[in-house]
Amino acid sequence: MAKDLKLIPLTQSFYSRSTLEVAGNLLGKYLVREQGRKRWIGRIVEVEAYIGEDDPACHAFHGRTSRTAIMYGPAGHAYIYFTYGMYFMLNVVTEKEDFPAAILIRALEPVSGFSGDDLHPASGPGKLCKSMPIDLSLNGTSLLRKPLWIGKEAHDHSIREIRWSPRIGISAGTEKLWRAYLYGNSYVSRKSNSNHSLSPF
DNA sequence: GTCCTGATGTGCT
DNA sequence: GCACATCAGGACA
Question: A22, A23, A26, A54: least buried by Cβ within 10 Å?
Fold first, then answer.
């Protein structure tokens, strides 16, 4: 599983494109967390897009606040927030500066560094941040370098088995197919429901 | 398998 | 005051 992974960090230009494009392209990439001598690596298998002040599920729906300011900043940075009294959520800022958008990293296929009995330690955005670990101390940091970054394999192969479905755990904006996941991958947070598609449109 | 609940803190609508 | 981009555990069937 953890063969000879030679990972190359994604560049800022990767993140500053349209959010749905970045979301699809993040599948199959690797999230790397480094803390002292420890290092966790997980393959991204599920993401969700939150796009702009017109998206009722996006935190920026009500405009810029101190919490959402990072989403208005430059692409390639981490937007992390705390919810339900106990979980952190990791997002990747996308698009141009001043346009608020981000991608929630929802699930990873463990590659290395994970310990414990849980066979699916990062199958969900809350579990992911608990296992790596990721908290508010990383909010606003760059994802282009350690201690938290995303890389691709030197010989990156395109991912074919992408499906799009409604986002999970929201009450408004459920008509949009802005959740992307690797079809058939057992580390996705839930089984696919009937409403999924080959395209987000 | 399904549905429902409790745990818990923060930002704001 | 209340909603919330969650999760694990329980009660069913």
Answer: A54
